[in-house]
Amino acid sequence: MPGGIASWKKPRATRLQQVTKLTKGGKTAKQIAAELDISLSMAHLYVKDAREAGMLPPRRTPTFLRGKDDPPAGSMKLMLATLPDDVRVWVYSVVPEGGTVAELAAGIITDAYEDEIGGK
After folding, report:
1. What SS3 state is found at 58?
2. Residue 93 to residue 69: CA distance in whole angstroms
3. Among 25, 32, 51, 58, which one has the highest count of C-beta atoms within 10 angstroms of its own C-beta?
């Protein structure tokens, strides 16, 4: 069972070193969790902590999605959580059936771009 008593007693520094080595070796978080007998969420947390400690390079968005100097895209879920309740309710009410909030946002951004630039 992942996360057993023996697996969580390892010192944090030891775990970070193990996770760093496995990640650099090409292992996924799922493989790391299985190999170290820890939960998948703990494996993700250790990878994140290793990145923040500089033991692993920062996670990079694929370049086809984001340019080198682009601002961070952020999280749609977190953005929605910051909206006033009435605005959030409106957003959900105008998402087309079967669509997503991200698709709605992309449409609004495209419309604003075309209005500003004079596109199609």
Report:
1. coil
2. 34
3. 32
Please give the pLDDT value at position 35. Answer: 93
Residue-level pLDDT at 68: 65
| Rounded Cα distance, 96 and 107, in Å | 11
- CA 98 vs. chain centroid, Å, equals 23
How much is the pLDDT for 5?
44
pLDDT tier at 60, thresholds 50, 70, 90: low
Phi and psi of 58, rounded to 5°?
Answer: -60, 150
The residue assigned the tokens 């999280």 is 75
Sorted by sequence, the CB contacts under 8 Å of residue 47 that are 6+ apart come out as 19, 23, 29, 32, 56
> Which alpha helices (H) appear in the chain, and where do they start and end?
5-8, 12-24, 29-36, 40-52, 76-82, 85-94, 101-117
